[in-house]
Amino acid sequence: MSHLRLNLEKIKAIIPHRDPMLLVDEVVDMMPEDSITSRFYVDPDRDIFRGHFPEEPVLPGVYTVEIMAQTSDILILSCERYAGKTPLFIGIDSVKFRWKIKPGDTLEIHSRISYENTDKAIVTCSAEVYNGGVLACEGDVTLAMR
């Protein structure tokens, strides 16, 4: 299999997410059935920063987890057996937040398939989010394809 790059339009053809909840801008490298690297620019104009926190804005951890899940969704839904399915977020394990993510940061997200139950269409991916080359968050995302 060859490595793939995907722009925003190709991403939208794979996953159902749309603004304001589409949290992947591009896929810089994907090895189908195995691993993916994506990028996301944390736009300072996102409404979430008005309240989290006005004096010192920081991206909420739930957004970081969603960024890991969406990157994993793209990888999984690129597999022929799951194409066209809806990814349902059913679990997150071993999450560690290690570095702040602020408005204006560009994140690089790595995810790889670490477990799959094809009979139940459940897949776990191990994901990492890097901010300026520093590990900001890591965890295992479990998704059901329905």
UniProtKB/TrEMBL annotation:
Keyword presence, Coiled coil: no
Signal peptide residue numbers: none
Keyword field: Lyase
EC number, as in UniProt: 4.2.1.59
Pfam families per record: FabA
InterPro entries tied to this protein: FabA_FabZ, HotDog_dom_sf
Record keyword Lyase present: yes
Enzyme superclass (EC): lyase
Any one Gene Ontology molecular-function term assigned to this protein's record: (3R)-hydroxyacyl-[acyl-carrier-protein] dehydratase activity
NCBIfam families recorded: PRK00006.1
Family as reported in the entry's similarity comment: Belongs to the thioester dehydratase family. FabZ subfamily.
Protein name: 3-hydroxyacyl-ACP dehydratase FabZ
Species classification: Bacteria, Bacillati, Bacillota, Clostridia, Peptostreptococcales
Gene that encodes the chain: fabZ
